[in-house]
Amino acid sequence: MKHLIPEFERMKTRLPPGHDATLLVPCLRRIQEDRGFIDNSDIDGLVEYLGIPRIQIEEVLSFYGMLRRKPIGRWHLQVCRNVSCSMRGAERLIDELIGKLGVQPGETTADGRFTLSTVECLGSCGTAPVVMVNEAYHENLSAADLDALLERLD
Amino acid sequence: MTAIFINGQSVETGDHTTVLQVALANGFHIPHFCWHPELSVVGNCRVCVVEHEGRGVGIACNMPISDGMRVLTDSEPVRAQRKAMLQFILLNHPVDCGICDKAGECSLQDYHYEYNGETAISGDAKLHSTKFFPLSERIILDNERCILCSRCVRFTREISKSNVLGLENRGDSMLVRPAEGRSLDDDPYSDNVIDICPVGALLSRSFLYQARVWYLEPTPSVCPGCARGCTVQFWHRKAEWRLSGLDERHNTRVHRVTALENPRVNGPWICNKGRDLPELLDRPRATQALQKGAPVSLMQAIETARGLLDQAGKRVALVSSWGSNEELRAFRNSLGDYFTSFVKPDHLPLEGEVVEDDLLIRADKNPNTRAAQDLFGTAAAEIPDDTELVLVWGEGVDFGTLPRGVKILFLGSWLLPENGHADVFIPISIQTERRGHYTNFEGVVSPFEACQPHRDGVIDAETLFPLLSAPGGSASGGGAA
Ligand code: SF4
Ligand code: SF4
Ligand code: FES
Ligand code: FES
């Protein structure tokens, strides 16, 4: 995390003095982007850098489902299973992925290629069902589209 | 002067800034779980709702005062919202009051009877959660009973500053938890969270299942654990609930200690040492007067002591810093002329104990050093080799350090080997068996009352001192002064 401190310092200049703790969520997001997850050493680093007690960082990490404490696979498949996507076949996509990858939602394949997650509405109901692969949206997915998509991910 | 109307009655707001504070200060009760006078306002429990006429219903704990505002604490919309909130808070609560230590002094129980009174309207199965989660050696947490008011969390952040506790996860999976790798063992004030928890989620292991609180009553007292002299309540069985089926110890024991709120000394808090006083008080007591180790009657011992006083040339007294103001004055009035007196610390900091901090804990581990030193000076004890009699009052003196051959008159309360090494040993009462006052390090005087029966064979030091100097004996004044 130490190498990100210059970036954090720039973020600080946008805040009134004495509000460093406000940087907690932006810092955590940046660390996750950089490392893929938040490591214990990152928490220790933030305790020191932001001067807030460890428990407050743990609270935030446990509150936001999108912040991770453990590494994930190269490709993170997040399948929306909220109302619109479920009505348009998301459950079938999930079953198919479980079968193909041999993992349950929340798990990573043994080769470290894929992590499968189910998530709530991705805000793209008009193009349901939606699967997010890392940062990219894949919309209106049929089972065949999904197969083709998996082929392209090494 | 700002005034507002509560239920049509005009009240002054004084220094207060919220409707809840003004209401409570003027005798209007508004239920509240999360609000606590010493903690920040979070407004998460929503039972303190009131109606601001013309503006609708809102939470009183975070409703600012405005001149002339009209507030209703018990209107129809208020009652309806409170009821709904209580139903909500009880959604996953186990309602296991029958086996809960808090029953009888639980806000949730009281408010339920007063403001809800209905069985659950939800037919959904309750969610289960952790029971008996250890937060420390001293405290266990029942997450099913926790209503997530966050008082305990704010206490560790804002008052004790140990920052141990937090609220993890979200919604109905939210849990009070310690930070990873930490526990409330790091917090010398941790047991206050048991008191401020509005429900029975935080439980004292030493008090767990010991007594239903309605069998107990509190006696106001002062913690002798350090020079702060926090005011406390000693909880013991009510006289009418002393049962023949229980042994003497259970019937008379101090079962728990809580803070007695006192803005001049300790606010509403005490440290964990104060909570552990029952252990100190439970030590085996000395009830038998001794002469060189041989049992004698109390009167015989007093007679012999008077003889010693009479015969000795140089006399030194080591005065107890645990004596009450009354006892110290009695000593000075009756015996001050006979002795060169020094104040001694009866107790020193124990290994591992917090010696001093900037909340309450003081380095001097004795309750009344200030009053004793006001009477007998601050000089450290110096006992010349030609001293013939040393009076030792209370604990903390190693007889091996006294001049060889000196006669020892020992006044003590506990069953100790030293008792038999003194020429005369006279058993005296302890704080819980008599009333009195202590003066704390800042000069604040606090009273304590008796709450345990006086034991046979034991005398109050205050009664003893005049007897030792009574003209019936031939001791004459004018010794070393
Ligand atoms: S344990 Fe008690 S004080 Fe702490 S949040 Fe739960 S109900 Fe509130
Ligand atoms: S701070 Fe001192 S007087 Fe207060 S409870 Fe603790 S030991 Fe007792
Ligand atoms: S329900 Fe899937 S994007 Fe909204
Ligand atoms: S006391 Fe006001 S919301 Fe809890």
The total strand number of chain B stands at 22
Mean pLDDT of chain A: 95
CATH topology-level name of the largest domain in chain A: Glutaredoxin
Helix content bin of chain B: 10-25%
CATH A-level architecture of the largest domain in chain B: 3-Layer(aba) Sandwich
Helix-strand category of chain B: alpha+beta
- How many helices of chain A does DSSP assign? 7
Give your account of this protein's structure:
The complex is a heterodimer of chains A (154) and B (481). Chain A is of the alpha+beta class and 154 residues long. Chain A has two domains: 2-63, Arc Repressor Mutant, subunit A; 75-152, Glutaredoxin (3-Layer(aba) Sandwich), CATH 3.40.30.10. Chain A has seven helices and four strands; from the N terminus they run H-H-H-H-E-H-H-E-E-E-H. Chain A has helices at 5-12, 24-35, 40-50, 54-63, 83-87, 90-101, 143-152, and strands at 75-80, 114-119, 131-133, 136-138. Chain A has a four-stranded mixed beta sheet with strand order 2-1-3-4, covered by helices on one side. The model of chain A has no long low-confidence stretch (mean pLDDT 95). Chain B is of the alpha+beta class. In chain B, the strands form six sheets. Chain B has a seven-stranded mixed beta sheet with strand order 15-14-20-19-18-16-17. Chain B has a five-stranded mixed beta sheet with strand order 2-1-5-3-4, sandwiched between helices. Chain B has a three-stranded antiparallel beta sheet with strand order 6-7-10. In chain B, helix 2 (76-89) crosses helix 3, helix 10 (325-335) runs parallel beside helix 11 and helix 10 (325-335) packs parallel to helix 13. Chain B is built from 13 helices and 22 strands. Chain B folds into four domains: 3-89, Roll (Ubiquitin-like (UB roll)); 133-204, Alpha-Beta Plaits (2-Layer Sandwich), CATH 3.30.70.20; 220-281, Single Sheet (N-terminal domain of TfIIb), CATH 2.20.25; 290-469, Rossmann fold, CATH 3.40.50. Chain A binds chain B through residues 53-56, 58-59, 62-63, and chain B through 157, 163-170, 177-180, 182. The complex binds iron/sulfur cluster (SF4) (2 copies) and FE2/S2 (inorganic) cluster (2 copies). Residues 146-152, 176, 197-199, 201-202 of chain B line the site of one iron/sulfur cluster (SF4). One iron/sulfur cluster is lined by residues 146-152, 176, 197-199, 201-202 of chain B.
